[in-house]
Amino acid sequence: MSRGLQESRAVGEREQPTDRVFLVTGATGRIGTEAVSLLARDARRPEVRIATRDIHGSWVGLMSRFAPQRVRPVRLDVD
């Protein structure tokens, strides 16, 4: 396991490695927020990536509400 991933966990929390990564587009909308919520609560502990134009924007609220150690932003800008 990479040192960076290990350090990002809460003290005492154990995470099982996963090969499941989900990319959620529209994550700050109503349906996207629900999708992130469901994935973050999944017992198989998948990694969730939120596609966003601004990685310092609205997704911050999502991370604070859902598993911040597994929910992360990915910069994606499509014109």
Sequence of strands across the biggest β-sheet: 1-2-3
Kindly state the percentage of residues in helix: 25-40%
Q: What's the N-to-C terminus distance?
A: 36 Å
Q: N-to-C SSE series? A: HEHEHE
* Average residue pLDDT: 75
The rough form would be described as globular
Major β-sheet profile: 3 strands, parallel
| Gyration radius over CA | 13 Å
Poorly predicted tracts of residues = 1-9
The proportion of strand residues reads 15-25%
β-strand number = 3
| Count of DSSP H/I helices | 3
Question: Strand pairing plus helix content: what structural class?
Answer: alpha/beta
Structural descriptors:
79 residues, alpha/beta, 3 strands, 30% helix, 20% strand, globular, disordered N terminus
Write up this protein.
The model is unreliable at 1-9 (pLDDT under 50). The radius of gyration is 13 Å and the shape is globular. The chain is an alpha/beta fold. Helices cover 30% and strands 20% of the residues. The protein has a 3-stranded parallel sheet with strand order 1-2-3, with helices on one face.
